[in-house]
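Changelog-adjacent note: as of this version, every example in the card shows the full chain rather than a window. The one below runs 233 residues end to end.
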Amino acid sequence: MLPEVQYDMINNLSTMKVLPYYARDRITCTRTAVHVHVHVRRQYFFITSLAFLVKLTHDMISELCSLNRRQLVLQILGLGLVITSALVIWRSLVYLTNSESPMVVVLSGSMEPAFFRGDILFLNHSKRSISVGEVIVFNIEGRKIPIVHRVISSYSGKTLNNTNYLTKGDNNFGDDTVLYAAGQPTLSTDNIVGGVAAFIPCIGRITIIMNDFPILKYSVIGILCFLVVLSRD
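Full-length structure tokens:
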């Protein structure tokens, strides 16, 4: 593990500019070694997980072939019931929270120390006005992934729908004006997905790993479907 001071020097570009060339070369080499180490660990995790999934898939396919037709149809119907139940629960959460995305996962460290990468946030989009200091999730035109930041100021209009907001990440130096769409100095109510009502730490890291490795994600989904189909209960 890198010492704290050295780690700060590696990530501080202003410090790099004032260092002599031999120190800059050493820090650059250290940074490259860290990135290679992280990359190797990620690849090792991916390969071992894939090998385990291949073996598990082979065993489940063998068991699936041993089922008779009537058992297979009943198990597939059970899988459809599980999927339908999950969709009903999700749509119920959308209705109760009045938010198109009742749950989101924090993907960056811009809100540390309030929220860390991998935290799951539960949202609620009520009709009340949003107060300064509240953490919200919002969409920006041209960006696929919602952003989780804190409201630092609001500009009230004649109605609630005309209220505009300025946001900033707790761990960022400046506000979010550079993130907004061109010609949009603040957020409108239409941009807001919901306010953070509760959270669960770290659980969302599983989602982040699956997004980093799509093959792993689809393999896990397929295996879960097989497990439901092969269930004898």
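Structural remarks: The first strand starts at residue 103 and ends at 105.
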